[in-house]
């Protein structure tokens, strides 16, 4: 009886493909890639640390040479210098990492025609952001710490970068606004502002007596209040519509002192007028400050 010999089965295509790899070389190369990436990252962290020290050194020298210091302007220049340095450093770090991994970034982009596409789309927006940001800084339109209104966003400027400006909203939200979208700026912090104070009155109120009381309060408190830079301007009685009359006053003050001056003198006026026995209209929006 003839016995049939079993023919060895052919290994699968996948197994043949896997066995064709030299796993020893692959592991060896992967180890060196990981080490190179780690060393590159450490190197760029050191460069970032040293670069930040140099920026701080030269920036402090620049500040010491200034006769008239502007803390907000100093923070703005420091912020933009640091951001620019970090952007450049991160670009070279990423390029170096991809090169170590073996990805020919330049060749791929050029071969695929992505450079032209980037310049036509993404880079165009980036260029607009940078150019707009440059003019914002050059013309002193914004500084870190300014209280501003940008279209529908109201808040304090926290950082000005090459691409975007960060605004901390009055509700404590952090808004990132691309520089190219900053078209209308209402800057409430440009050195000099007027604290506006409105005292609501009745049509039959003793207006002159109220004005005299406000002048007396000013005489006692203006000279001792920080931030006031000029004499108050009592504009008199103003009709704001709907039968509502007010006694309006402006107090010129530093931008950083506007709200403190406004709150303080509004309270002083209301207390003095009430103490004189003069009745004022009820206003739910006016609350005492303790």
From TrEMBL:
InterPro entries: LSM_dom_sf, MS_channel_1st, MscS_beta-dom_sf, MscS_channel_2nd, MscS_channel_C_sf, MscS_channel_TM-2, YbiO_bact. GO terms for molecular function: mechanosensitive monoatomic ion channel activity. One of its GO terms (cellular component) is plasma membrane. Residues 127-190 form the Mechanosensitive ion channel MscS domain. It is a multi-pass membrane protein. Its main location: membrane. The keyword Magnesium does not apply. The keyword Nucleotide-binding does not apply. Coiled coil: none annotated. It is found in: Cell membrane. Keywords: Cell membrane, Membrane, Transmembrane, Transmembrane helix. The chain crosses the membrane at residues 30-55, 101-121. Residues 84-124 form the Mechanosensitive ion channel transmembrane helices 2/3 domain. Belongs to the MscS (TC 1.A.23) family. This is Mechanosensitive ion channel family protein. It comes from Apilactobacillus bombintestini.
